[in-house]
Predict the 3D structure of the following.
Amino acid sequence: METQRMEGKTVLVSGGSSGVGLAVAKGLARLGARTVLLSRDGDRGRNAVRAVQQAAPGTDVDSRVVDLTSPRLGGSPGGRPP
């Protein structure tokens, strides 16, 4: 199976500052995607940007602080249903 390049595409990766999210961000960046890491902690997001840049030099990587557990979005603090 041929891997499709992602140049010209922008991807948002929630939980991109660690674990599976960070691994996904590195893989997408290696494929050429502009990668935006979403995390709840700015310092962890910045550290993750550096990690992705090391894994995929020359790629466009950024981070944003977001909390997707907002009750308005259907979640609740702590990630448990309301």
User: Anything to note?
Assistant: The chain has a mean pLDDT of 87.
